Amino acid sequence: MERRIAKEVKIGSVRIGGNNPVVIQSMTNTDTRDVQATLAQIRQLAEIGCEVIRVAVLNEQAAVALEEICGMSPIPVVADIHFDYHLALKAVEGGVHGLRINPGNIGEKWKVQEVVRAVQERKIPIRIGVNTGSLEKDILEKYRGVSAEGMVESALSHVRILEDLGYDQIKISLKASKVPLMVDAYRQIAGMVDYPLHIGVTEAGTVKSGVVKSAVGIGTLLAEGIGDTIRVSLTGNPIAEIPVATNILRVLNLKEGGFELISCPTCGRTQIELAQLADDVEQQLEALPSPEKRITVAVMGCVVNGPGEAREADFGIAGGKGRGMLFQKGEVVAHLPEEELVPALMQRIKQHIQCR
Q: For residues 76 and 99, is the Cβ–Cβ distance under 8 A?
């Protein structure tokens, strides 16, 4: 795919846009005033692949807490602020690495100027975030409701405010809970500006429904070369978001490393407990350190397509009747009873990782 090349901005040490890899983001759901709980969640997210974290700043106490959070966070911190320019200034003073604030919503021009002056001094980027639920009344009236065109117009109006003040360290997001609307909006703005785009399906739902919406929406845009940073938004603990985001990137070959599990759907030819074997392998792979170079693992259920797929993988097993073959790099290395397949497979993978 040919990727849209955006202007590069930096959030702390993380570069977004340009030729840099797509960056995974998430947002804490702790009370930001609770520094220890917030830091604990940030560390958990960072350990599994989150690269930038956003925190809600609802009041003065939360803004004050940012100094300690930013000082101890293992990844850059973005302050999510609505309407109150004073909180934005406090966040900047506290060492935040990025702001999510819409300049058109914080009042008089002098307030916007104060925020721009503060971020200019520290080279802190601002993300303009437009959601379908927060479109201005005049835009809703103009387009007779929510529309991709209205979302783009809203975003560009905020962009112009910053540009008129000489500020261009900008990222843009145009999120909607309806995938076609979200995709349309991003496609439109991608050809109108060169700023980095933060993409995601907002209010996607629970893990059950939100994974599908996010994979379709984010995956469609990334496959078209649109998107510089992503967030998978799922109801509940944000820890669940990172594996989904990571997998979307890996499926599109936009992220190196990790494990890719291939397993067949099972059919009437299957004569081993393939579903259980695949689950066991997946769980054990998740417990291993992520390799820098991607390792493909195949768990196949019969002698028709199984050996061929397993042979194409780095490691694989293909079942027969209560037995199976173990493959490594295209070669059959053992014929084993069903109960020995997974232990033998995992032993080979662990040995491979340790040798690198």
A: no
In this structure, which CATH number among 3.30.413.10, 3.30.450.40, 1.10.3720.10, 3.10.520.10 belongs to the domain 259-355? 3.30.413.10
Report the b/e string of 73-101 with b at 16+ CB within 10 A: bebbbbbbbbebbebbbbbbebbbbbbbb
Instruction: Check residue 208 and give its pLDDT.
Output: 84
- Same CATH fold assignment for domains 9-251 and 259-355: no
Least Cα distance to 328 among 315, 312, 310, 313 occurs for 315
Tokens encoding 26: 């998430």
Q: What is the pLDDT of residues 82-113, one digit of tens each?
A: 889 999 999 999 999 999 998 888 888 899 99
Task: Give the mean pLDDT of 301-321.
Answer: 81
- Model pTM above 0.70: yes
Domains of the chain: which residue ranges? 9-251, 259-355
Q: In this predicted model, what pLDDT tens digit does every residue of 260-304 receive, in sequence order?
A: 998 888 888 777 888 898 999 999 998 888 888 899 999 988 767
- CA distances to 88, 154, 165 from 113, rounded to whole Å, are 12, 20, 7
Fold category of 9-251 in CATH: TIM Barrel (3.20.20)
Average pLDDT value over all residues in the chain: 92
